[in-house]
Amino acid sequence: MLGQQGRGGTGVIAVAALASIVLLSAVGVAAFRSDTAGAQTVLLRGSDAILTLAGGERRAAVEGEPVPVGATVLAGRGGAVLATAQREVHLYPATDVTVLDGLRQVLGAGSVIIDASAAPGMDLATTAAAVTARDGALVRVDGGPLTRVGVLRTGDADQSGAEVRATGRRAPTQVEQYYQVQVANGGLPGSTTPLLLTGDDYELALARDLVLADRMLNDIGRRLVGTGIEGGVVLAALRTAVPNVGVTAANSPDTERALGYLVATAARAAGRSEAERFDRVRELRSAGGSWGVVAALVDATVDEVGARLEQLLAPSALVLAVQQEPVPAPNLFSFDPPAAAPPPQSTPQASVPPAATAPAPAPTRGGTSSPPRAPRPAPAPVPAAPRVPDAPVVGPVVGPVVGVVQEVVDSVLRLVDLGGAGDAPTNGPAPVPAPSPSPSPLLDLNLTDLPLL
């Protein structure tokens, strides 16, 4: 009994100690937020910003000076930055923000990015919603009649980056990393969707890796446009690996399907088939996510996507090794066209020795023969103009070529212009159609020509 009582007493003491730790932690967080609420907000940058005081006085803002409580900062053409206890709020040009205290601000018109990477979060009110940016998060908020809240980064992988509540409502919507939500004035928050990047200088400065990945993936997509060898090879592999692609992405441009397949194959999704990964990529892309965001959500890096593309291009050259006679693999992007075969001859003819006498000249109409003419020298061969092909021309394949390699070969052969013997060689690449557009932005942010911070 004494032992049991001892163990029971120890358990009670442990629970009491744990409760006290939790209580002290809560008190510490509250005290920390209270200290932040009382902290001054300073205009860190914004040489052309305008300051409107609570009493209505309007004057030019001064960099490095505190912003009085209740004052509104209107950013000029160069934007502005408000700093509070190591937290920065980046104001886009023509954006106005009212400072209530160290934890609360009000967004009027325009857009801001809250950078609380190494600082406590904050509450930002808009006309449509109240936004709470979490500690350590990087959150973008676009104000106006339709407020958009997007999370570029979270401080804790186990919690959301922002909480959004429609004005006058209590139920919050949690926004995870790489997602966004929109709220119209007087309405409820919509469904969370993959984040759409604007790719402006502010996002580039604050979320550089994400924006650069998005730009590089779009560059790869432009490389796959049209009937070039890269696009043809990837689409051939796609048809083999994902047989239902004609049903699941029938209305998708070839570039979307090809780049989606590359991202899906580079994704590190354990337990999922290639078809399932491809469907997931198409789902995120169709919902409006930028390519950089989609790749981040499926854990695919740009390096892995590029490596997968090069891996798919390799079989189109290596398949030449299974021909009857080994030949060196050609350069896929610069090679001479194959020589045309000589026309067939109907009857065999005896060869003429080099010193043979020339045949007698044919008589003219007057019965006299014309004087013999000197033989014309053979014309010098004219070098063929370099041809920029869509795909290499391969010879007859007799070896066992199966799976995706055979699909690649079939696709490449379909892309080659196999005109008649009299067709003129192609002297340049075929015209390339314009790249397919990415999903339209949900908001017309009008954020061109912004300065790099």
**Main β-sheet: number of strands, strand sense, barrel status?**
9 strands, mixed
Number of separate structural domains: 2
Number of strands: 17
Q: Which runs of at least 5 residues are low in confidence (pLDDT < 50)?
A: 1-31, 317-341, 346-370, 384-405, 411-453
Distinct helical segment count: 10
Coarse shape: elongated
Strand order of the largest sheet: 3-2-4-7-8-10-11-14-15
Radius of gyration: 35 Å
Percentage of helical residues?
Answer: 25-40%
The portion of residues forming beta strands comes to 15-25%
Structural class: alpha+beta
Write down the secondary-structure element order: HEEEEEEEEEEEEEEEEEHHHHHHHHH
Cα distance spanning the termini:
70 Å
Q: Mean pLDDT, rounded to whole units?
A: 73
What are its keywords?
eight-stranded antiparallel β-sheet, Jelly Rolls, 10 helices, 16% strand, disordered C terminus, alpha+beta, 453 residues, nine-stranded mixed β-sheet
Can you summarize this structure?
With 453 residues, the chain is of the alpha+beta class. The chain is built from 10 helices and 17 strands. The strands form 2 sheets. It has a 9-stranded mixed β-sheet with strand order 3-2-4-7-8-10-11-14-15, with no helix packed on it. Strands 1-5-6-9-12-13-16-17 form an 8-stranded antiparallel β-sheet.
